[in-house]
Design goal:
Number of strands of chain A: 3
Largest interface: A-B, 48 and 48 residues
Strand content of chain A: 5-15%
Strand order of the largest sheet of chain A: 1-2
Radius of gyration of chain A: 17 Å
Order of helices and strands of chain A: HHHHEEHHE
Largest sheet of chain A: 2 strands, antiparallel
Mean pLDDT of chain A: 97
Distance between the termini of chain A: 23 Å
Number of helices of chain A: 6
Oligomer: homodimer
Chain lengths: 168, 168
Amino acid sequence: MYYQVISQCTQSLKNLEGWLDRAQQHAAAKKFDVGVLLASRLAPDMKDFIYQVQSACDYVKAGAGWLSGQKPPKHEDNERTIHELRDRIRKTIAFAESVKEEQYAGAGERKISLPWAPGKVIRGEDYLPQMIIQNVYFHLAMAYAILRHNGVEIGKMDFLGPTSLVDA
Amino acid sequence: MYYQVISQCTQSLKNLEGWLDRAQQHAAAKKFDVGVLLASRLAPDMKDFIYQVQSACDYVKAGAGWLSGQKPPKHEDNERTIHELRDRIRKTIAFAESVKEEQYAGAGERKISLPWAPGKVIRGEDYLPQMIIQNVYFHLAMAYAILRHNGVEIGKMDFLGPTSLVDA
């Protein structure tokens, strides 16, 4: 299930690329700079869209890395344009997809350090639901909400992405 | 991992109960009816706070039920007050917590029907990441965003809830 969950998080980043297309279309149709959306936030003391994307990427990268016993690559938080954000998303997807299913063997027993909790660790079986799933979907949902609140034409199906239905 | 993920979703509903406390405090301090927050939405064509809570509850209930081979209980969507929303959350938690870890045995191979896809099913190993995780956290994050956008004093830690740290 570690592999399946990280794969879904990776798919969700691909869904996010589609929201960026819609954000660009919306800005073009309304004749404003898409950078306005990237700098938007839901409350004055919340983070902006760029940060939400960076954070979502960081947690996908951290999950794929630490749960497979690898130190995740470092990505600087220096994106300012939608093109740079797309690059950030794509290099995150590339890293997550480089991790094979068998590399998650024993993920539940791995002990993972958190930068804000010196001297403590969290076990992989807690890290996935508590840290990775919750943070990835929090930040993706905030990014979605910022666009949606600002009139970008995206809907719930764009959030969920494809569903693996089979014949009954 | 099925049990751990559903347990985390259940914990997230408990976190949501804490956001309702803050919503009530905020409404009392600002002298407005908390019902205003319950009817709030992030965009005119998005659903309101009450719906987001009902939906988050429904997906936790569905995950706990179908993945353990049980038909989940039916809960009518008739909540109008914050007290009724609390009851909805609590009966969802009670059902989810009634499912024991061993009841999720074989969850990945279960075939689950979706009301909008007649003649099709989804396997449990796809249902959990694609339908349950994504929908539970989408609706919880939208509920959080509605409150946060309206000035309720909640933060990221209130979204995440407790973390299972152990000594390194």
